[in-house]
Specification:
With about 350 residues, this protein is an alpha/beta fold. It has one domain: TIM Barrel. Helices cover about 45% and strands about 15% of the residues. It has an eight-stranded parallel β-barrel, surrounded by four helices. It is globular. The structure holds (3S,4R)-3-hydroxy-2-oxopiperidin-4-yl beta-D-xylopyranoside. The site of (3S,4R)-3-hydroxy-2-oxopiperidin-4-yl beta-D-xylopyranoside (XIL) has 8 residues, from loops.
């Protein structure tokens, strides 16, 4: 009899729990002990009511997807355009959300007018310092952290990426950007951010070497960002290895652009390889597990005081960057095309809970 009562109580409780989980009462931002973010564009925040409502419900950190990149804030020579960023700042302040700045220096967002301006290394270095100083000072105390340098390291090799910045200034462009950002806002958390370092161990090791060189020169770096645009078949063991490496730096660790695809690409625009044409319910469940594993590993491996947070690169399959960018039909996000929670959502929710 006693057992029967216990069983009934248990059944009742578990049905309540799943009811709470399936309803809207449990949200990512409430469940996690660290910030949970999403990439979002100015236009999503301002014009798309349904997307905005979900962002406000689930997240407490925003990374503007493209609106803070160099080509966005300085579309023409030496002319800053602040309106869009100011409006995102106001949105975050109104809604008590953390704003993360992405990205100060990145080869892919360097505007053409700048690469074609005929700079020599001295004038480019002056430009870089003035740009970072003006930008970071304007949002001092408002932008919580910045991707100061994005994607500085070559894939599968121990070298630095040969970009416009590197070719003009050598490794010192990284030092200069971090130093200027730190002087402009000494409290901002300053990140080196890169892709594939959760799986490409050669690249991860080169990133750690770079961080060690920066530290030994006294460069004020305070965070490492793993973009974590990852794939279903990347082994958890390798991701765990990378998280350990990142944690061992003692820096803040940000999973800064998380999404999980099924298909493949070679990291180049338009070069997706379509293997799966539809998302079966079995695949959706497996994706939920993967989201859970990643969040679990993050919580388990990265010490609490280094957990800067987990940021998704968009939260839904409808507006994911993966489809247009790689020309791939994939389902990388935690909400589906109809803006409904997927198994991936419940997996992530489970994974972020202590
Ligand atoms: C992507 C955006 O999501 C796309 O809209 C844009 O066309 C290209 O850039 N790594 C980064 C992000 O650091 O800035 C990229 O964002 C995705 C890869």
């Amino acid at each position: 009899m006693k057992n029967l009562v216990a069983l009934i109580v248990l059944l009742f409780l578990s049905s309540c729990a799943s009811d709470i989980l399936r309803g809207d009462r449990v949200t990512l931002r409430n469940a996690a002990s660290f910030p949970i973010g999403t990439a979002a564009s100015y236009s999503q925040l301002n014009t798309d009511d349904s997307i905005r409502a979900i962002i406000l419900k689930e997240f407490n950190s925003i990374t503007p997807e493209n609106d803070m990149k160099m080509y966005s804030v300085m579309p023409r020579s030496n002319e800053f355009r602040w309106e869009v960023v100011d409006s995102i700042v106001a949105f975050c302040a109104r809604n008590d959300m953390r704003l993360f700045g992405h990205a100060l220096v990145w080869h892919s967002s360097t505007p053409r007018w700048l690469t074609e301006a005929g700079h020599d290394s001295v004038s480019l270095s002056t430009f870089l310092e003035e740009y970072v100083t003006a930008y970071v000072s304007r949002y001092k105390g408002v932008v919580d952290g910045w991707d100061v340098v994005n994607e500085a390291v070559t894939d599968s090799a121990g070298t630095l990426r040969q970009t416009f910045w590197y070719n003009m200034l050598g490794e010192s462009y990284i030092d200069q950007a971090f130093i200027a950002a730190h002087e402009a806002d000494p409290n901002a958390i300053l990140f080196l951010n890169d892709y594939n370092i959760e799986r490409d161990t050669v690249k991860m090791n080169a990133t750690i070497d770079l961080i060690n060189r920066l530290k030994s020169r006294g460069v004020p770096i305070s965070g490492i960002g793993l973009q974590m645009h990852t794939r279903m078949d990347i082994p958890n063991e390798i991701i765990a290895y990378s998280l350990r490496k990142a944690a061992e730096t003692g820096l803040q660790v940000h999973l800064s652009e998380v999404d999980i695809i099924f298909n493949r690409h070679n990291d180049r625009q338009g070069e997706g390889e379509q293997i799966y044409n539809e998302l079966t319910s079995e695949m959706a469940q497996e994706q939920g597990e993967k989201y859970m594993n990643i969040a679990d590993m993050y919580r388990g491996i990265v010490p609490k005081d280094q957990q800067y947070g987990i940021t998704l690169w968009g939260f839904n399959d409808r507006t994911t960057w993966i489809r247009p960018f790689f020309k791939l039909n994939d389902w990388p996000a935690i909400y589906d095309d109809n803006l409904q929670r997927k198994p991936a959502f419940y997996g992530l929710l489970n994974g972020v809970m202590d």
